[in-house]
Design brief:
It contains ten helices and nine strands. By secondary structure, the chain is α/β, with parallel strands linked by helices. The protein folds into two domains: 184 residues, Vaccinia Virus protein VP39 (Rossmann fold, 3-Layer(aba) Sandwich), CATH 3.40.50.150; 66 residues, rRNA adenine dimethylase, C-terminal domain (Helicase, Ruva Protein, domain 3). Helix 4 links the parallel strand 5 and strand 6. The longest helix is centred in the last third of the chain and has 19 residues. It is an enzyme of class 2 (transferase). Its EC number is 2.1.1.182. It is found in: Cytoplasm. Keywords: Cytoplasm, Methyltransferase, RNA-binding, rRNA processing, S-adenosyl-L-methionine, Transferase.
Length: 264
């Protein structure tokens, strides 16, 4: 892939250039012929080349017109299907399932991208992303730790996740100011994501972590009464980061059932 492209800050571009890291990523993904793989932001093609070689035909989503032009010069439609535009607005249900999603996600929009991808979880086999290490640490954090928060709960509800390895700034051109990490995400079976009202779950979790230093009684006062806390066996003086994913799901199910019985 020809060089010479100037990285654009508005697209959060930092191009992977370390061959050892590239090999590690491809080993982790292990692309195989016939698999439906989509790469988010192929950039200068660091992992595009081995991905396409592995699966035979690759889908890519790219927003940068200069990079799209390079992709069209380098690859035939038989090798790569280019989807031009913003991954945040892309409808991944238009791609064949089961889908494998990979990419070096722009750090400035990584959280909304992760939630966007999560909405297609039922069509996804797995996802392997490079993200800022701080974000990956939050994704896989355990309850009662500083990194544990809304991102942890909402993604752990839907995915089994593992932080695979760190990527130093020197692996990129230009080098970012932060360390990156590779995270692997595998959707849980539908039977394990059986919250009665996922929108309510999201509201509860957002409220619980909205003011981390406040107790659940304060952060959830518009949703949970003292009677609800008693029924759930949850201490209202506890803070949001002390509850595990299952406890948040139990709370959402309890409040959903209560609302249904009140409306019956």
């Amino acid at each position: 892939m020809p060089q010479g492209h100037i990285a654009r800050k508005r697209f959060g571009q930092n191009f992977l250039s370390d061959p050892n890291i590239i090999r590690q990523i491809i080993t982790a993904i292990a692309p195989k012929k016939g698999e439906h793989i989509v790469e988010i932001g192929p950039g200068l093609g660091a992992i595009t080349v081995p991905l396409q070689a592995g699966c035979g035909h690759l889908h890519v989503v790219e927003i940068d017109r200069d990079l799209i032009a390079r992709l069209k010069e380098t690859w035939s439609p038989a090798q790569i299907t280019i989807h031009e535009g913003d991954a945040l607005k892309f409808d991944f249900s238009t791609l064949p399932a089961p889908l494998r999603v990979v990419g070096n996600l722009p750090y400035n929009i990584s959280t909304p991208l992760l939630f966007h991808f999560a909405s297609y979880a039922e069509r996804v086999r797995d996802m392997t992303f490079m993200l800022q290490k701080e974000v990956v640490d939050r994704m896989v954090a355990e309850p009662d730790t500083e990194a544990y928060g809304r991102l942890s709960v909402m993604l752990q509800y839907r995915f089994n996740m593992a932080s695979l390895f760190d990527v130093p700034p020197t692996a990129f051109k230009p080098a970012p100011k932060v360390t990156s990490a590779i995270v692997y995400m595998q959707p849980k079976p539908a039977s394990e994501c059986a919250c009665r009202d996922e929108a309510l779950l999201g509201r509860i979790v957002t409220a619980a972590f909205g003011q981390r230093r406040k107790t659940l009684r304060n952060t959830l006062r518009e949703l949970c009464s003292d009677e609800d806390f008693v029924a759930l066996g949850i201490n209202p003086q506890a803070r949001g980061e002390t509850l595990g994913v299952a406890e948040y799901v139990r709370m959402a199910d309890h409040l959903s059932a209560r609302a249904e019985s009140a409306g019956a």
